[in-house]
Amino acid sequence: MSLGASESSGEGTNIKRAASPIRHILARSSSSAPCYSSPSATKKTLLDEKPIKKLPLTGPDMNQLKKSDDTTKPTTPSKPASSLGSSTIEDLFKTAKRKSHFNNTSSSNLTTASASDSRPGLKRSHSAISSLDAANEPWLNTPITTKHQKIDKKEVYDRLTPGIADMDSAQVLMSKTQPTSCLEIAGSESYQEQVAKACGIYPNKRILCYETAPPPSSKVDVNKNTQTRLNTSTSASAKRHILTSPEKILDAPYMADDYYLNVLDWSCSNVVAVGLGKSVYLWSADNGTIQALDYDLDETVASLSYSADGTYLAVGTSSGDTQIWDVQKNKKLRSMRGQDCRIGVLSWDKHIISSGGRDGSIFNHDVRMANHVVKQLHGHVDEVCGLKWRWDGEMLASGGNDNTVNIWDIRSTVPKFTKRTHVSAVKALAWCPWSRNLLATGGGRDDKKIHFWNTVTGTRANTIHAGSQVTSLHWSQHYKEIVSTHGLPHNQVTVWGYPTLNKIIDIPAHETRILHSAMSPDGQVIATAAADENLKFWRIFDANGKIPLASESARLTEKKVVQLRRNKSIR
């Protein structure tokens, strides 16, 4: 219900609550026993002076008020109605109307105040008053003064505009320690670290995590039990396939069956030279062409050796001459005579060609000089059948039919080491290309052993019992292996691992003993010649793109240094 011109439903509710105490007062007054005025007078005064139809009450409240007035029967005279003054029921309703504008809190306070003001009339015991006799009471003549409370209107705040009024409360709330919920704890970083640590998972062990490793812990690593291990295929590398059949076979007639000769060599120009009787033939491995040297002497070819650049070929004769040939021009450049015996072995080092004689002597010839013999070495008492310069030119190894191995320093004419471990002639000699102080030597028919020597200390490093006459040795340039050729009784080619000394493969090569062998310039193919008059080529060390163990550039650099030292020492 509404009051006056108010349109708010809330205000109407407040007015109803404000008028409620007045109705309670009238109801309580009508139930009082004594009455000091007549009913007619009281009713007339109320109706004439303040007609009830003008009251802003309608509906059941107005009917209840009329019923209360009609049934009131006062027995005692009351004071004149004129004394009521301004404290009439209408004034009370006007007061309630003013109070109806207050909020719900003010309405509650007004209800409490109105109820407290009516207590004096209810507590009077010396006289009985009716509901209409309240006009003569002095407490009603005093105008009701209501303490107007300042109504705080509800302020409207914008969430985007900070309010100064809320700053104090916000600071208080922020200063207080707020209890952290379980969800907040679970989402924090420390909680995650604790969980990871409990599970044995450490973030710094992840892939691409560039952090220092944590200190070792004595706790059990749970991650080791839960992590799926990848079974990486660690299968042994496939064994290198070595063909047991030769790639090529050439006919070599008139091959002398002599263990002490060396009539086969392979140049860096990929040309194979072979001495057959009183002739020398050149076979190109590139195009297969064959060329014969204009060797016009009636002397047997005893030894052959190519220079380092493959341009010159040294030929040792049975009469003791050492000839130098230009293979490209097929022309003999010079003939140098030193020993008065067969030259069974030759070895080059730059411009020095060393010849080993049947008398056990070794002559060093400088091909640039007229007086070509620059040094003589005497360390054997029988024919020299093995001779090999180390690739750096600092040391020379020689083997003879006296079962002796001599290791020579270029600066001295006395052997640095003399080894008599073999019990047969020593023809097979080989310097290791990737270990400069390692020398391999092979014994003859009665020895059948391969010894490995440390040329710094002179000690024997290892020994292989080959089981056959050792005729030649060659180190691999790409693998830590060595190949040996053999005579009686097996006539085979054998590949050995080093330093494991395990036998990798045995290849039956010839029907008779292998007399000579040579390695290709790329270090992959071995050529063997035997008394069965066959020249065979075996692919033993297939490089498959492997880089040589000894770098060629390092060799050349070291050779230059050695050459400078040697030039100073010789001259």
UniProtKB/TrEMBL annotation:
PANTHER family cross-referenced by the UniProt entry: CELL DIVISION CYCLE 20 CDC20 FIZZY -RELATED (PTHR19918), FI02843P (PTHR19918:SF8)
Signal peptide start and end residues: none
Biased composition (Low complexity): 29-41, 73-83, 103-118
GO cellular component, one term: anaphase-promoting complex
Protein name according to UniProt: CDC20/Fizzy WD40 domain-containing protein
Keyword Cell cycle tagged: yes
Record has Phosphoprotein as a keyword: no
Taxonomy of the source species: Eukaryota, Fungi, Fungi incertae sedis, Mucoromycota, Mucoromycotina
Organism: Rhizopus delemar
Compositionally skewed regions (Polar residues) per UniProt: 1-12
Family of this protein: Belongs to the WD repeat CDC20/Fizzy family.
Alphabetized GO MF terms: anaphase-promoting complex binding; ubiquitin ligase activator activity
